[in-house]
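U., I forgot to send this yesterday:
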Amino acid sequence: MTSQVRRRRRASDALATAGLRVLLWWLGHGLVLAARLSAALRSQITRSLTVEISADDGPARHWDFDGQRRRVATSAGRAATPDFAVRFSSSGHALRDLVSPDAIDAIMRDRIDGTVRVEGNHLLLMWFRGLLRKVVPIGGAGPARRALPGAYVEHDPAANGVEKIIIEPAVRQLDPQWTGAWNARAKLWIVRGTNGEPLREP
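Result:
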């Protein structure tokens, strides 16, 4: 490796380190501010815990969540005893994963490769990512849904097999007396999340 290549690599590493520090600062203080202004976000802070994101080459930040006051504080550096931590092998690697629209998938793939260490309950990653998306909406919703061509979108008495289709009146929500269905729905994060309902951390 020539000296010129080494200089370029050092410059690239320094730029990535500075970029990660800026990103973590923005996410850290942005989340603190959002928790003060957004009741929806505060409703998702239901227990006290510490979350850390760090890289082996220096940059680190942690968040302290207060479940009683429903507040969050942030500080630069590693936490003494985090409840959950994501530790990257380098700042460049951390930037690539954190700004990815599929950040969770990227982190979990790299965890398998051994370039990312995830410590603690992995479900907290989805919860924490959901909070951060309120600050930086990376990985937003996809294109609007539309009916597929030729789809059976309305009742057609002339269609084959129509005699086997039971037509129920349209409703906007489950019957309140159907307690079993409501209890089952409350356990489905994908249903609650897509309807904009607040999700508590695991």
